[in-house]
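Lecture 7 notes: from sequence to structure.
We start with the chain below.
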Amino acid sequence: MAPAHPSPTTMTDGLGRQISYLRISVTDRCDLRCRYCMAEKMQFLPRNQVLSLEEIALLADMFVARGIRRIRLTGGEPLVRRDIGDLVRRIGRHLSSGLEELTLTTNGTRLADHAALLADAGVRRINVSLDTRDPDRFAEITRGGRIAQVFEGLEAARTAGLAVKINMVALKGVNEDEILSMLRWCDTQGFDLTLIETMPLGETGEDRTDHYLPLTRVVDMIDAHHPLTAVADRTGGPARYHAAQGLNARLGLITPLTRNFCADCNRIRMTCEGKIFMCLGHEDHVDFKAALRSGGIEAVEPLVDRALRLKPAAHDFRIGADLAPATRRHMSVTGG
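Predicted structure tokens for the same chain:
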């Protein structure tokens, strides 16, 4: 049976899934070059192809009116975007009228300068990508990053009253020996931890199969020290949460390869050039930029329904030595 036609304040895809979560990549640029995410020598978009902050804000306004209840700002690294605070404040105004939550994912390197601003604009929690606490290993994974900047940012977030969740990509032979200690450290810091399987997006110049670590294996390892119990907590995204015996930190698992989360997907993604991707693992998209610039927001409205019809039942992530990435674009284009 075909799904009921959505009301003006909800968005429903062709499979009847309600879409309530929008992830906005405000820039494809980043000040790090994480090996599993992008190539060392990246070619970023020319600035004239990138939406202005005002254009992003107008599209966010429209999506909130259509039924989006959660917005996450991502990148690239969102805090490298000049005047990002103006956009956060603009979107944050919807928190009293339709929008339930505004969040942000960051690598933390510029968080010390922005944490207070984010909190003042209505952000209450953030995700910080941190795959290791070892300075040398951090520099290796990020191709030159300084972990001290991240620790300064985390302290600033704590001072500003922001709840923090650490996102850690589990990498075989790279950081698997740190996963248990990371969970315990998060517990001492008052953070939650989410582990993520590496995703086959874009050519990075390295073979992802060398470092692919199924989280089923990680769960067995953690469970031997801190028995895990699934909990019903949800934060709007794909993570499934567990309580770890003896710890207060929640453990989230994002498992696109070993156990996909597509059946109840509630998300769409908008890139910094105005392309709407209905699935992280597919190339199909609808381009809003030309319509917005030629006809204003009224010209974009019909494209939303077209995008909803394009949302597939599931991604097609597979990983193997002879398999090409699921998409040509890098993770930094659409965010996590």
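Points to note: The radius of gyration is 19 Å. Confidence is low (pLDDT under 50) at residues 1-8, 323-327.
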